[in-house]
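Handout, section 4.2: multi-component inputs.
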Amino acid sequence: MKNIIYPGTFDPITNGHLDIAERASSLFDEVMIVIANNPRKNSLFTIDERIDLIDQSTAHLKNVHVSTTESLIVNFARENNSVALIRGLRSISDFEYEFQMALMNRSLAPEISTLFMMPDEKYMHLNSTVVKEIAALGGDISTYVPEVVNAALKSKLSK
Ligand code: ADP
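Output:
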């Protein structure tokens, strides 16, 4: 059984995240989406809300699960016997940060590899921050996020 960790903030999950999760789910026995709980980051959705949105958005992927941790991702990966971390690469600008993080994680846990995947071109320009900004300004984000996320954003932003 090869299980892999897909870490991130997922505030909220977008179709770009989902694209990567789907690709990983076809390659590995189990994919664990892990919400890195970083109290220093200001999030729109609580951890429980993010878990719920990911659960609903990945219901069609039977080998994809969701969890959260406050500890280092490589420690979480070790505790769960994961073989690797998966990260999405959208652009050259993602590369430098991801490269540095992958090397640091390898230095902390040499047995855990980092794998990179590219999403479908239509999701290359997408990130959670942009989606939240468009939604806050009344724009249509229905092609960028799962329907449950679209509804959750509308309800959150109307409060
Ligand atoms: P963001 O706030 O930028 O969406 P996250 O921390 O939630 O970032 O992202 C978790 C992982 O998912 C990262 O590896 C990130 O590069 C990847 N990711 C985010 N959006 C996309 C996308 N549109 N296509 C591919 N990968 C993505």
